[in-house]
Amino acid sequence: MSSVTALNGATSNGIISVSDAGLMGMITLRGDLASPEMAKAVKAVTGAAMPAARQITSAKKGSAAWMSSDELLLMVDYADADATVAKLSKSLSSVHHLAVNVSDARAVFNLSGDVIRDVLAKGSPADMSVDGLPIGEVRRTRIGQLAVAFWFNDSENAQLVCFRSVGGHIMNWLENASETGTEVNFH
Q1: What is the pLDDT of residue 1?
Q2: For the whole model, what pTM was predicted?
Q3: What is the mean pLDDT of residues 15-39?
């Protein structure tokens, strides 16, 4: 496992603040999300309930984000990711599933400010209105043709996940899109 993130603690302050979220344990969990075994396993490792479609649920031990009809992204402490995969594999041994530690293959950004939606709308085809992307709903989409997922924790704080290999590019894109003087005043 890595000891540094792809962005090595990078930050940027413009019309929004963008920062490297640091090392985060991330696990792709695939299987029948409607099965009681899956819900029990997710609750055991994160403390969070099984999220509904396009939602994210959080608890003290971690979060569970709905990624597709058979896929979740579980977020836990970075140091616990391998042990969490082992625990999932053991508890789900009787059902078809896949649990993979993808922590070192992802970059995570914290976004803060009151115009995050405007900044993201500059490069994403997603509906960034409050109705189109309510707080707590996960959106898998693209920014500048690169795959990303993001969600709002509250009206002025969001998280964005992308592949680690394009983390530097996404950071540059976010810096450019949030430069002072580039306000669109859409919201």
Answers
A1: 64
A2: 0.94
A3: 97
Q: Which CATH class is domain 11-21+105-177?
A: alpha beta
Token output for 129: 């209105």
Three-state DSSP at 14 gives coil
Q: 3-class DSSP state for residue 46?
A: helix
Q: What is the mean pLDDT of the chain?
A: 96
* CA 153 to mean position of chain CA atoms: 11
Same fold, 11-21+105-177 and 25-104: no
Distances (CA, A) of 62 to 12, 57, 132, 143: 26, 9, 25, 26
So what's the architecture of 25-104 in CATH? 2-Layer Sandwich (3.30)
- In whole angstroms, give the CA distance from residue 25 to residue 104: 8
Per residue in 47-59, pLDDT (tens digit) is: 999 999 999 999 9
User: What does the domain layout of the chain look like in residue ranges?
Assistant: 11-21+105-177, 25-104
